[in-house]
Input
Amino acid sequence: MKIIDKSHEHVHSNGVHSKRALGIAIAATSVILIVEVAGGFWTNSLSLLSDAAHVLMDLFSLVLTLSAMIFAARPISKTRTFGLHRLEVFAALVNGSTVFGIAVAIILFAARRFHHPEAILAPQMLGIAVLGLIVNLIVVFKLRPHSHDDLNVKSALLHAMGDAAASVAVIGGGFLTLATGNKWADPVAAVLVALIILAGAHRIFSDSVHILLEGAPRGIRSEHIVETVESIAGSGTVKDLHIWNLCSHICVL
Output
């Protein structure tokens, strides 16, 4: 008799569709990154360049998410009994550190713009920002159906929604520049986006360090685990409990 595990087939099918959705999201995000970098230098818009930095962070997150899914499917070996899951944490640590530096640089450039305002091509900058928002919304639309079954995809969806919020800030700066003619709106929008980047980079950096230091998974109460085990095995049977994250989505006990 052959037994077919329908749940396994369902999970495998979801994984394939999730990878396809992530691939589309990576391609779309790569295009908008190139457009915003080129457009930022063309229009002399610091807010566009800051949004490009935010897109870079989220593109890295998307690639990291897809890579984690691919590495997770690889078999373990005698020399790597946990597989290659922790590569995700090292890559996230590098990503958080790099983007943190980029955000600080943007704030410094914005401070200089406040003292020495520079003209920007506001209509062109606004058009590129609107294009960026549209692409971000497409990415959100593609990832949303798969975010309920996959924690990695849910994380990537949150990054894409953050990108959309940053694009709205840039668009607001563009409208203010067009409406008032003031040159300060662009650096203000750049600082707002940089603050969004700093918040995200801090979260990535702190979570990565917490995992690398074998910290207990956030939201898990070790005393509750002890109580549950001892309710079955008997009081005082748990002598030495260790619980930690192997990567962002795998807990080990």
Observations:
- The chain has seven helices and two strands.
- The CA atoms of residues 99 and 201 lie 6 Å apart.
- Residues 1-13 have pLDDT under 50 and may be disordered.
